[in-house]
Design brief:
The chain is an alpha+beta fold. It has helices spanning about 10-15, 25-35, 40-50, 90-100, 120-125, 130-135, 145-150, 180-190, 270-280, 300-315, 325-340, 345-355, 370-385; strands at about 1-5, 5-10, 105, 140-145, 150-155, 200, 205-210, 235, 240-245, 250, 255-260, 260-265, 270.
Length: about 400
């Protein structure tokens, strides 16, 4: 193995060996497979998981190489390399998820993020055991479950970070973490705590409660920091989201530990009352006041600004994985042009965009720092090119 940027890079022939017979090393493989450490793109995932598509290959079809029985994980999960003759324990985790019908894909060793350039993970997540064996046998990858294709809704009950305290709506006796907030919701709705379902203890002591998706309803991700969420320290993952699977181990500055099953039963259906909370129409935001300095009687400008603001918020909230930062930058630039024209306060625009981007927090999403930097950059660039709007003349 050759070292690059602190990570192990798989030899090109190792990736090709997954198809069983292909030994060619032509430009097509070289460009897609070992360019920057574990920078394995979607095409290489297909090749490494058993489907060779390079011209002239004599391989008659996918014939995955034999893989030894899973054993204990390598001593350093972050190395990305398995000892000769052994495969990472995470392979067993990925296969168990697939056996349940859950679509999985690999995460970086010791991390919660997908492999570099593996952006279309929801499409390429798989339940095919041959593809899983072919890829996971090559490194100590963590495992992710793509919730949408798997028909799952996962409620993530988090624990507070050091110094974090409940916001005012949840500053109640006995409320210290996400599980306590869910317990309060259960009391308010006179429902039992939904504990009889597949449950995973997370690395920081939180819980992942797995449920099957309600029929006929397409739920998406929510966060407790957004008004569409369930409450403080409660996130949900559904279409467009994923969770780190049991059997994975994450080593990050905010916490190190394994994800492990603590209640191994089939996922229960998502309770109707929780479905109702996740599909309820949120309250209509307070309309923007006419910006200072605008003449009274110009009634079309406040409505125009409100429409533009809501449209850009939808752009951000509905962005698909791989396009979220671009969508946020575009929305900030467009609103920045209104800021530059004196039609919209900059802090108002930033607050609404931050609120919209909060639905994409969590594994694989945008960090608060990224959100702040992108919004600031976009608003600044847009304000430098103010939008010109022709006002209606009084009759």
């Amino acid at each position: 193995m050759t070292a690059r940027t602190g990570r192990q890079t798989p030899r090109l022939t190792e990736l090709q060996a997954a198809c069983g017979r292909c030994g060619h090393q032509n430009g097509a493989h070289t460009r897609s497979a070992g360019r920057s450490g574990w920078a394995i793109g979607d095409r290489t995932w297909r090749e490494a998981s058993g489907g060779c598509n390079h011209p002239g290959c004599p391989c008659p079809g996918r014939t995955p190489a034999a893989v030894p029985t899973p054993t204990s994980a390598p001593s350093s999960a972050a190395s990305g390399a398995a000892p000769a003759g052994k495969v990472p324990a995470s392979l067993g985790s990925a296969l168990q998820c697939a056996a349940r019908g859950w679509h999985v894909f690999p995460l970086r060793p010791g991390d919660k993020r997908p492999l570099p350039r593996f952006t279309d993970w929801e499409t390429h997540a798989t339940t095919d055991p041959d593809r899983i064996r072919a890829f996971w046998s090559r490194g100590a990858f963590n495992t992710a479950v793509a919730c949408g294709p798997s028909g799952l809704v996962v409620i993530d009950l988090d624990t507070p970070k050091p110094g974090e305290t409940p916001p005012k709506p949840w500053a109640l006796p006995g409320v210290h973490e996400g599980a306590d907030v869910l317990a309060v919701l259960c009391e308010r709705h006179r429902q039992p705590f939904p504990s009889e379902t597949y449950t995973v203890r997370t690395r920081r002591g939180g819980l992942h409660l797995y449920f099957t998706s309600p029929p006929g309803v397409r739920l998406r991700n929510t966060t407790g920091r957004h008004r569409t969420g369930l409450g403080w320290l409660i996130d949900t993952r559904a279409h467009g989201g994923y969770v780190v699977a049991a059997g994975s181990r994450v080593e990050l500055p905010d916490g190190t530990g394994a994800y492990r099953v603590i209640h191994d039963v089939a996922p229960a259906p998502l309770p109707d009352w929780l479905t109702g909370l996740l599909t309820a129409t949120p309250p209509t935001p307070v309309p923007l006041e006419c910006p200072p300095g605008q003449r009274a009687g110009v009634g079309d400008l406040p409505a125009y600004v409100r429409t533009a603001l809501q449209g850009e918020k939808r752009r951000v909230a509905d962005a698909e994985p791989g396009t979220r930062n671009h969508a946020l930058n575009k929305a900030a630039y467009n609103l920045g042009r209104l800021v530059g024209a004196g039609l919209l306060p900059a802090d108002h625009a930033a607050a609404h965009l931050t609120d919209a981007a909060a639905v994409h927090s969590g594994p694989g999403g945008l960090t608060p720092g990224e959100v702040h930097a992108t919004i600031t950059s976009g608003l600044t660039a847009g304000a430098a090119r103010p939008r010109t709007i022709t006002r209606k003349q009084a009759a």
